[in-house]
UniProtKB/TrEMBL annotation:
UniProt name for this protein: RNA 3'-terminal phosphate cyclase
Recorded GO CC terms: cytoplasm
Active-site residues annotated for this sequence: 304
Lineage of the species this protein comes from: Archaea, Methanobacteriati, Methanobacteriota, Methanonatronarchaeia, Methanonatronarchaeales
InterPro entries with a match to the protein in the record: RNA3'-term_phos_cycl_insert, RNA3'_phos_cyclase_dom, RNA3'_phos_cyclase_dom_sf, RNA3'_term_phos_cyc, RNA3'_term_phos_cyc_type_1, RNA3'_term_phos_cycl-like_CS, RNA3'P_cycl/enolpyr_Trfase_a/b, RPTC_insert
Cell compartments where the protein resides: Cytoplasm
Organism: Methanohalarchaeum thermophilum
The gene coding this protein: rtcA
Length: 335
């Protein structure tokens, strides 16, 4: 059984999620301690509990020490992943982070995996659902991962209540080379509100468009169904692989600031010499490892990415070669 130190590197929940995914791929059991030790509220939160429960149900895994705020866990899958499951995080915990556990396991899945998840679709410290669909899933489709999502209802902090349907099919990850970036032809996006005046979404959109004045733009305004109130904007480039950015509204934060924040962050991503943005730089790590011989250039090397690479190397017989410094553009290779 592999032993994983949950305090390594950035010491957050991604260590657990990646360990769960690759344990299910390799059928190697693991014991993790110091779970989320570097966070203000260490141990398993509701989202992490549900991630473990989901992966256990998909693979009939043996689990020990699964309880809220536990800092240790043992997990050993018995079967290849398959199933049709409904799961409720019970809070505004991120649906997208939970779904990250499933994506690598499609490379060994026996059959379709269909999941209905209730929780948070647009919450802090995680990719919004529009980023997940238009950037994460879009890029993974290009390398052979057969997955898609449908968002039925939005979920915001603190009530949650969002609903996303995930569908994945058995997949074979292709080797890939994403080392060249391309200038965007257009900026796409969605500015949205739930249970708030639609004018907020229009103001977010205008603020973003003013900053992105040199680009062609196609930013739509949407009013989404939800239990609670929420607002935000997600932007991404068109031409080559999409680069993305987002910003969430919150009490006291003007709509103009939400829009400008997302636009300025996207311009930063565009100006850097990378084929994928900093967030996909992290999310592509396990797929590069599973492909066995791939490389890609990220706009910014983050501690998340370095930590994720460390976890993947524990499970797979590979080594990452990273050319670049943290906070700068970097080329990530597996061979």
């Amino acid at each position: 059984m592999l032993e994983i130190d949950g305090s390594h590197g950035e010491g957050g929940g991604q260590i657990l999620r990646t360990s769960l995914a690759l344990s299910c791929v390799t059928r190697k059991g693991f014991k993790i301690n110091n779970i989320r030790k570097n966070r203000s509220n260490p141990g398993l939160s509701h989202q992490h509990l549900k991630s473990v429960e989901l992966m256990s149900e998909l693979t009939n895994a043996e689990i020990e020490e699964l309880e809220l705020r536990s800092t240790e866990l043992k997990f050993k899958p018995k079967n290849k992943p398959k199933g049709e499951i409904e799961i409720d995080i019970g809070t505004a915990g991120s649906i997208c982070l939970l779904l990250q556990c499933i994506l690598p396991t499609l490379t060994v899945a026996e059959d379709e995996i269909n999941i209905k998840v209730k929780g948070g679709t647009d919450v802090k410290w995680s990719p919004p659902v529009d980023y997940f669909k238009n950037i994460t899933v879009y890029i993974l489709n290009k390398i052979g991962i057969k997955a898609d999502i449908k968002t039925k209802k939005r979920g915001y902090y603190p009530k949650g209540g969002g609903l996303v349907e995930f569908r994945g099919k058995p997949s074979e990850v292709k080797q890939f080379d994403f080392s060249d970036n391309q200038s965007p032809e257009k900026i796409k996006g969605v500015s949205y509100v739930s249970n708030l005046p639609e004018d907020i979404a229009h103001r977010q959109k205008k603020s973003a468009e003013d900053i992105l004045d040199k680009y062609k733009k196609d930013i739509i305004v949407k009013k989404f169904e939800a239990i609670g109130k929420g607002t935000g904007i997600v932007l991404w480039t068109k031409n080559g692989l999409p680069l993305g950015s987002s910003s969430l509204g919150e009490p006291g934060k003007p709509a103009e600031e939400v829009g400008s924040e997302a636009a300025e962050n996207l311009i930063t991503e565009i100006k850097r010499n990378g084929a994928v943005d900093r967030y996909m730089g992290d999310q592509l790590v396990p797929f590069a490892g599973l492909s066995g011989n791939s490389r890609y250039k990220t706009t910014q090397l983050t501690q998340h990415t370095l930590t994720n690479a460390w976890v993947v190397e524990r499970f797979l017989d590979i080594n990452y070669k990273i050319k670049g410094n943290k906070g700068k553009e970097a080329l990530i290779e597996v061979n």
